[in-house]
Task: structure prediction
Amino acid sequence: MFALGSFLLAGLVCQSLGQYEYEDEYYMPYAPMEGASTANCAQECECPPNFPTAMYCNERNLKFIPIVPTGIKYLYLQNNFIEEIKAGVFDNVTDLRWLVLDNNNITSEKIQAGTIDKLGSLEKLLFSHNKLTKPPSLLTKSLDELKLVANQLSSFPASTLSGMENLTSLHLSKNKLTTESITGAFKGLKSLVLLDVSENKLKKLPSGVPASLLMLYADNNDIDSIPGGYLTKLPLLQYLRVSHNKLVDSGIPAGVFNVSSLLELDLAFNKLKTIPEINESLEHLYLQANEISKFDLTNICKFSSPVNYSRLRTLRLDGNNVTHRSMPDDTANCLRQASEIIFE
Result:
């Protein structure tokens, strides 16, 4: 490990643990009071007096969704054994705002028409860790967050998110999605800032991604190249993760990562032999576990001067064929803001 300067790691605007891990959040503003519940509540659940528009049915060993009474806006059903969504369960709450269904056994075939698709005011749908093979039908235009992590999605029709101009966060990781299956899926999502398609079967980065995007996570796929000019179509992108793929030098067009908006670039665990050209504004570059054998400083700094230098704070090169002895003489001047340059 070779250290330069002082260390300050920029935090990500996401639920991040370490470099790759995420933790699901259930958006519980208040914990239910044990034994206390309002009169307007399903008997299997709790509706705390201090938050009477929420109904907590999580971790109740439920095999079905109880009829939701009028007035409930926030419904928590995670960590049960629910296998289907029967017609009528949401008839009293078509204005439901949050629906949490994580960690159940629901299949696409067991979602009855006239259930989720009639929730026209839904803002958050958390439907991770189930057995969905396709996304549920949605008619709401109010949705701002959709989580379908760790299902069995193999298709994602282009019309699924049509008209959802308020959607800001879309999590599709740990599924079976291919590049072809998500073609056209993100068109018109004018407010989208986070797209997570990691741990799927993509061979290319997703196309048609809106220019509003700040974070794109596509690690753990089969991506072998980056299209020329891809990042110039995403002028606000700050975080790009393409680790654990099949990237090679020939699949990286010259200057494709040289964009001023990017703060973090993760290319770890690929097959790169050289350090790709980056912009001087990049702050975190992860290249560990590639096949790099040369420290090419010109791809980080075209030249160094009192006003021209890299803003890199973190540079990981461990698991390659370079050591701190590989660094050119001018490295300290170029990387004057670096906190750590990790070789082993």
